[in-house]
Design brief:
about 425 residues; 16 strands; alpha+beta
Length: about 425
Amino acid sequence: MLTTAPRGTKDILPEEVGSWRYLENILRQVSASYGFKEIRTPIFEHTELFKRGIGDATDVVEKEMYTFLDRGERSVTLRPENTASAMRAYVEHKLYGEQQATKLFYIGSMFRYDRPQAGRLREFHQYGVESIASASPSADAETILLALEILEKLGLKDWELKINSVGCPNCRPQYGEKLKEYFRPHLDKLCKDCQERFNKNPLRLLDCKNDACHAVAVGAPALEECLCPECAEHFAGVKKLLDAAGVPYTVDHSLVRGLDYYTKTAFEVQYPPLGAQSAVLGGGRYDGLIEQIGGPPTPGIGFAMGMERVLLALEKQNLLPSQSDGADVFVVATGAEVFPAAFKTVARLRHGGLKVEFDLAQGSMKSQMKKANRAQAKQVLIFGEEELARGSVILRNMATAEQKEIAVENIIKELGEVEK
């Protein structure tokens, strides 16, 4: 057990980190171009934040959270998502100020006790954005466009955007009653979870992945039929702006998302080449969330992207760039007498910004050259006793096998290094 990572977690090894950095760089570049600024919140929060923010009746709160008592007997929870945390930070630090809107993004680990599957672990990584304080449909459209631009920049072009309106506290109760009326004759066909959801949160009946429940839900009434005038106008405004931007989408009446804080717009982007687990990101509007956790009434919209899922898609489509973490220079010392001079040169080159490696064990010449190959070194600098006595070293180009003798004082110049 001591040499095995906990089930549902994964080590990200050195050869994989380059792909993560590539994805993170794209996420940060696109976020900045849309005016979003990074926020970093704690890994754990007071449990009540998620209970009030996400909803007691959700699967996340009821079944999936990592919750424990700290040494002060306080209940804390590893964050299962980051929207509630970001909103807590927004209220606590009064980030609203005098701005019309606050736009935040985050990248980090989330934790849910769920069955591990391809692209989703118990510790997983999310990128997400939150556009706070604008109730305009333009905020919804902008947020969706940001998500799609990221996928386009990554080369993932076969995406499918699905949108819906989940209404608001004014019109949702009426829809809930319609759903209960529809599902009541079929209760015996529903799974145990859905039988419990029937009274607690009937909208979640549309979100069940159980085949039998899904088959029953196919004929359920659409929420769009029950939208109040405000919600209907807002949804029409979102669709109008997406049409104006030339964004293809499908209105999916069964799309309700799994968290209670959503209001009005809900959306999801799927990438069909991934197969059954094709959703790569999803989100929606949460106009009552900040008030629910103790802040002033403030609208907002956001989404979260599963980074493991996106990396899996990039890998399957061969869209990850080749990573080269080879050393710029490998310094070889042929004996103990020349090692101090070689070590000094290593320090100077590293200080100048080059990636430099050398053999800590000071092995044989043959052994050090093998290590230079394994380090994918572009150049090898060989310190020999005879050469050093003449004030020079040998510089070998590993790609061409050409080598030449150069003066020690010219090492920096030969390697194109500018000493600082």
